[in-house]
Amino acid sequence: MERVHPTQPRRVKVYTLEGDKWIDKGTGYCTGELTGGPNFVVRDEDDSTEILLRASIEGSIQYQRQQDTLIVWTDSEGNDYALSFQEPEGCLLLCKFLVSIQHTIEPNISLVAVVSNGEDGEITEVIAGPVPEPCMPQDDNLPEVLDLLNQGSKSPKFRETLLHYIKHKDYLKKLLETFHRNEESHNLDNLHYLCDIVKTLIFYNDPAILETFLDGDAIVDVLGTLEYDPEFPKMKTNNREYLARKIRFREVVPVVNEEVKELMKKTFRLQFLKDVVLARLLDDATFNCISNQIRVNEERILKFITTDRHFLSDLFGLFNEVEIVDEQLMAKRREAIRSLHQFVLVAKKLQPFPRTRFFKSLIEKGLFKAVQFALKAEHQENSRILATEVMVTIIEHDVFLFRKSSESPSKSGFRSRDAYDKALIDILTDILIKEPNIGLKTQAFEALKVILDPSNISGVTESLCSSPATPSSDSDLNSSSESFLESFYKNCARRLFEPLIKLRKEDTIKRGEYVTYSALCELTSFIAREHDRYYSRSFIIDNRLLEGVASLMGSKHAYQLRISALRCLKIIILLDDDSLTHYIVENDILGEFVLLLMETNKCNNLINSVCLNLLEILIQNDNLFNFQVLRDYLVRSYGTLLDTNFLGKELVRSVHAHGKDATIKGDATSKDMSPISDEEDGSDLVKFGTREDEDADESADVSSLQPPVELGEAGDPNTSNILESVKTEYSINQAKRNLHVVDDEQAQEQLEPERKKKVVEAGLRLQTGIGSA
């Protein structure tokens, strides 16, 4: 029981009402005391022995708290008193003392708060007061029962008493018996009262009351009372019919724990109550109360699933290979996929650690088998959708949870991390390329981006390679990250990008494949930008990926694809990569871009804006060598066409002006040509044999690689010779850097075997590490 303690003194003025005037009786310190019974005692502030007021707290006195500093009351003899506190804290302290007295010693006193509500005057709110006994519902007292429940909703004492009635005096049973009688007699007025009574009890937001309502025998009748909503007197819902006819509790595998089985049923009923029956009526407090109860139940269910020895094993055992697969087994497998999907959606609400533990249990017990079954079910689109969402949810939570699970033996059938990686990426690749459902393609694409993101690779690598006792070094992390990239480009990349690799200009793309090719364009730019260029650049060049991207800009394709391809090429160009730039030039990758620019030259649309943006990028970056090469290539090959566009014309002028400046500088420097020493330009001596050094060079100033030659006019036959000299000079410089030499003749000698093919190709292969010395 609550204990009452005397209060600390608080400074206060004492007033008494004489006639119609409040008379000041002095200033002192007020305390709540228990000597001789509970009372207020005010002692003079100058002489503590003088008592200004001693007022007993007894009987049925009603105390009013006005504003924040006043307590006003009329005693049992009819005298009116008021205490005006110096501080609101003092008033609050004495009000708490009154509440404690009401709860323990004098249950018939009351404390109300008088609050101003602006224009309409004042409202009174009961803080504490006598608690009436709940009355048992009968046919003739339902209005009184409803009024009593509304009045007692804010009283903890009444709620406690009501809960005692519900648990020990069959209050709910009496209520439901009254419902049956009135439904049989078609007494709509009483049925409306009963509906309001049940709603009021639910809005008490007491888990114990909700638990009683959700009992297997009571829930149907509780839902029945809620069918007769007084706000819609001429309409009636069919809650009971829906619950009885359309809802079946099916066990894909037996749940041996009866408590958990009943908990599953109660959780569904709570969900049905929240989302269907009371969806229109719920306030925030009730919604949160029911949602919290659902969350607690779901956590207990998932804990059972994770810890039970047989449940997950039996569930995934349905997907083991058998000689005869009948329709009954197929139906059970589809039900298992639905169950897994529900479990994963529930797990998304958990905290990260228990969520990880649950997902890991699914993977170790054989999740892959279930997913592979669903994706192979050609005529079961719903199963494919659910399985894909399961995979994407786990990937978004922890991208390499599958790899972590491969640390220990499992029933999944994979022997190594690489096997997990390949299986996971292959599944998502199949969805992206073969799945007709556009939504699934999009989900698979997003999941692939998460998997291939280097930041995710590094984060998982660190968690896999380190422990509190032995933190992993940077070299360990880099090694594991490179191992993943090497495995991806060796085993998965070609299969993923195969549609783009095999695409030719004359091919026609179906509408359902737009998402696939747009995603592959974005993935191409993604790996080029984010992955170690040692891997991504070689893959893009060796598989002629950019030719497939360029094919998508053809006039026969939809604007959606053409924009995706153009954006991809723009990102590739912005990388300012030597090898990719010369690959673009050698294979005329930007030819389709120029044709697309001409096609949309007089249009004011998105695709023309993207074209103009690329031209502007080329114009603005005229100080970078790779951009100079691209500008020269465009002007040489398509100068006449570019002259028809205002930005194209500016590009042509810029290239010609830059070429003349280069000629002047070349004439000035050619008079005194001498070998470059280590002291004069150490940047040319940087070793590029490793990828780390190569990355460092990419951010270096490459303007020194510009050859001292003059560019001819567009269409000038000498232009091709000039451009070839640019490429030759560029290749020699690349060879010097890669072979760590400073002499032009030595570079020429080293390049001679490769020059038999092409000088540019030699520089390209040396840059990518293929055939390097």
Supply database-style keywords.
single chain, 773 residues, alpha+beta, PH-domain like, nine-stranded mixed beta sheet, 35 helices, disordered C terminus, protein phosphatase activator activity, EVH1_PP4R3, nucleus, PH-like_dom_sf
Strand content: 5-15%
Judged by helices, strands and strand pairing, the structural class is alpha+beta
Question: Counting H and I runs of at least 4 residues, what is the number of helices?
Answer: 35
Round the Cα radius of gyration to an integer and report it.
41 Å
Distance between the termini: 89 Å
Mean pLDDT: 79
Strand order of the largest sheet: 4-3-2-1-7-6-5-8-9
Please tally the β strands and state the result.
Answer: 9
- What characteristic shape results from the CA principal axes? elongated
Major β-sheet annotation: 9 strands, mixed
Helix content: 55-70%
Low-confidence stretches: 406-415, 459-473, 666-773
Subcellular location: Nucleus
Protein name: DEKNAAC104628
Keywords: Nucleus
GO biological process, one term: DNA damage response
Could you characterize what this model shows?
Among the domains are: 10-128, Roll (PH-domain like); 142-301, no CATH class; 592-671 and 682-773, no CATH class. Helix 15 (381-397) packs parallel to helix 18 (438-452) and helix 19 (454-465) packs across helix 20 (474-491). A 9-stranded mixed beta sheet has the order 4-3-2-1-7-6-5-8-9, with helices on one face. With 773 residues, the protein is an alpha+beta fold. Residues 406-415, 459-473 and 666-773 have low confidence and may be disordered. It has 35 helices and 9 strands.
